[in-house]
Amino acid sequence: MRLDGAGDVLLAGPAVRAVRAHAAEVVFLAGPDGRAAAELLPGVDRVAEWHAPWIAHPPPPVSQEHVAALTGQVRDVDEAVILTSFHQSALPLALLLRLAGVGRIAAISNDYPGSLLDVRHQVDEDADVPEAERMLALTRAAGFEPPDGDDARLAVRRPLPDVAELVRNVGAYVVVHPGASAPARAWPAERHRRTVRELAEDGHHVVVTGHERDLTAFVAGRHAVDLGGRTTFAELAAVIEGAGVLVAGNTGPAHLAAAVGTPVVSLFAPVVPAARWAPYGVPSVLLGDQDAPCRGSRARLCPVPGHPCLSQVTSEQVVKAVRELTQ
């Protein structure tokens, strides 16, 4: 169970495969933002969806009907592994799973869980461990060792869709994904637009992706293929897999790139630690002031005037990083 964003779900991939090596069936409980990613994870047999009131933005109301929507989906589950980030508590979900009759529950919890957990895994939350490794450590503590030969990298289910028509057979290309899950993690749109133009001038074909069509159209301009709003999550994975490099912030597609083996130029705002959430297991160049005043704030809106952690990153730096990763 991982109830937040698509990137967080993708980072759970190695832990899911470890569980699947010992289970007859794996049901992945995801939130609305993570469902499409869960459907792409190798080892997942079925995906259930629930909108958690303590995680979602904005949160749904807590009601008996909403809780019943969860318990009705997990009544046939024998064991549960609750995957969380260091700033999330597993205990609200553990309580609901107990009420649904789940027999064995494992989670990371430094808070006293009482009878809510059968496997309480404690970690040093001041240590910045990559998120994928943190979750895999929990599954190991619960008795689910990874299968022999598993490299513990991120992965997606194959085959991916054919996207040749979407990218117009442009040959080698770079993907620029200007959107972000929170404004505090976003690089200015004008800077993205300038980067696309300079990448084209540097000899790169460029494809712009994202859900916000006005944003992608502005960023693509006359210099890139605009796929804004035109891809499913699986198609986005295929588009990114075909790219030489992805340029993106700390958002789901950066982890999707890691899952398909594409290098990343990461425009990373330090509101969360890069050591935990930077692209995992692929070549990457990290741009952004990781010691900026917003460091560790977990802010969704930038708390520092001028957004200095990312606004100081130039388009020239991004083009140089792309050049480094494609040579």
Overall geometry comes to globular
Instruction: Assign the structural class, choosing from mainly alpha, mainly beta, alpha/beta, alpha+beta, or little secondary structure.
Output: alpha/beta
Largest sheet: 6 strands, parallel
Average residue-wise pLDDT: 96
Q: What low-confidence regions span 5 or more consecutive residues with pLDDT below 50?
A: none
The helix-strand sequence is: HHEHEHEHEEHEHEHEHEHEHEHH
Tally the helices: 13
Got a strand count?
Answer: 11
Widest beta sheet: strand line-up: 8-7-6-9-10-11
Strand content: 5-15%
Helix proportion of residues, in percent?
Answer: 25-40%
Span between termini? 39 Å
Instruction: Determine Rg (CA atoms, Å).
Output: 20 Å
Question: Would you give an account of this structure?
Answer:
The protein is built from 13 helices and eleven strands. With 327 residues, the protein is of the alpha/beta class. Strand 10 (264-267), helix 11 (274-277) and strand 11 (284-287) form a beta-alpha-beta unit. The mean pLDDT is 96.
